[in-house]
Amino acid sequence: MSRRERQSRSRRRSYPEASYDEASRARYRVRASRPGGSGSGGTDRGLSVTRRVLLAVFGVVAARLGWLQVVDAANLKSRAESQRTNAIALHAKRGTIYDRNGNVLALSEDCETIYANPSEISDPSGVASALADALGGKKSDYMDLITENRESTFVYIQRQVDQEIADELSETLAKRELSGVYFLADTKRVYPYGNVGAQILGYVNMDGDGASGLEYYYNDLLTGIDGQMLVETGLYGTPIAGGASRITEAVDGTDIVISLDIDLQEACEGIIAEAVEHYTSDSGSVMVTDPKTGEILAACSTPLPDFSNLEDLEALNLKLVTSSFEPGSIFKVITTSIGLEKGLYTPDTVYTVPAAVKVGSSYVTDDDGRDYTMDMSIREMLRRSSNAAMALLAQDVMGKDVFSEGLDRYGIGHKTGIDFPGEVEGLVKTKDEYDVSSLGSMAFGQGLAIPLVQLVRAYGAVANGGVPITPHFLVTKGEEEVDWPAGDPVVSAEVAAQEVEMLRLVVTEGTAKNAAVDGYDVAGKTGTGEVAAEDGSGYVAGKFVASLAGFANADDPEVFAYVGLNGVPYLAAESAASVFHDVMTQTVNIMGVSPVS
Q1: What is the pLDDT of residues 183-198, one digit of tens each?
Q2: What is the set of domains in the chain, with CATH numbers?
Q3: Which residues pair with 230 in a beta bridge?
Q4: Among 184, 233, 364, 401, which residue carries the largest CB count within 10 Å?
Q5: Handedness of CA 234, 238, 243, 245 (dihedral sign)
Q6: Residue in 399, 375, 400, 403 with CA at minimum distance from that of residue 389
Q7: CA 506 to CA 501: how far, in whole Å?
Q8: How far apart, in whole angstroms, are the C-alpha atoms of residue 296 and residue 286?
Q9: Looking at 421-552, which runs of residues are DSSP E strands?
């Protein structure tokens, strides 16, 4: 048999011939009917499962599309916009502060904040040289700043740089093809009068927030609201010319006018600084007001701040507001007026005053060394500034109920509400806290400690017919005049007039002779308080709080002044009275108060 014949024969013969009998077909039908079998039943079931899976997947996709298109559409839109828009801050300007005459005391000017991306600086030496030339300082310091932050993308070089300097630096960097230095638009606070009034105005920090003084107290009013400009950008963040933009305008801060007269402020700062040195005082304070309105015309305490080199934080404090002192004899105006208001005596009522009056376990005497009993009218008690007489009036005539009620009426031991940060209440015992010495001691200004702005308010009330007005700085905000309402009368107009008459006598014939100002009718009272020891053991020998409060002209007061020297080794008649004279002389001249005819 040929090979071809062998190859053409069927190969079935090499294997047992398949038998398709009924038994085999039966077995096939059984297998096909099982799950997953190869018959028609298995095929239908497999397709069903596949369809279900596909339907489930389609449902999930459809649900997600529905969520994205309906529920989350706003979020998607926002994310898309954020990727093709750039937000540019529009900085609000802080409000300007003016004095009562329209002089600008504080304003904000445009400037630049300079920063670097050290990772982009290819020539650190060149950049450091350019920075040192433009901004000052050492090249090595800038080199250190750059090299020590090589992995950083942001480091401040200098904040609040004058616009002109920043522009010059920008041109220098461009000419030298130096990269990695950037500029941010910024504003900075400028005080045209330098350190004059700095204690009252305060200052703002690098973030533009008020940090002390009126800048801090009225920060919410002065601070504006920054705006924003959204601009459409291209692939690399570059604004598209003619592209869409949306602007939220910045709202600038509110301008304010305060009651200071900057010329008088400067004069008072010079006077008190010189007085502290001349009288070897620990510190000194001045406040000048209009007693009819409560407006503060000048105010300061030493040490005075220098914001170009602020090392002594105490210089930020206006001690008349933030610190408490024993007021001394200046308090006697309050004591005598309380009894006058209650009708317990008149200015001409006479009492027999011994050389020493027992107060608690001690005896109180007068500073003039009087060692004999003397008949004194209320008027004479004030003229002589008799401690013994005040103790006698409080203990034997008024009593603690009348006296404590009178102090409350004057607001002694309570905050005045002055618009300046850090006001304290002082330490004043309530009636229930009085001990055997409280009443007699407090009557002449010992045994209590108060911020002396409380006495400024009290004397202002006497000068204003018995009606107190809170001492304050703010006059207008924007176009709105600020109303500072008068308080309830502390004494009647009649009693106030009686006190004014007695205070006039103190200046013309009493302990305040050195306070007199030629051509003016001045009424006032001296005060010499003792300085309490810090350990609470008593008083410091040879140190006093010397003060004088008074106003001019007495019949129709237009200006009031308080002067205090703290820790001074002199009585008020020998120190504070002369300082008051200098302050009041400047005040009547600068404020245009007419002399008496």
Answers
A1: 988 889 999 999 999 9
A2: 88-256 (3.90.1310.10), 262-590 (3.40.710.10)
A3: 87, 246
A4: 364
A5: positive
A6: 375
A7: 9
A8: 11
A9: 474-477, 480-481, 522-532, 539-552
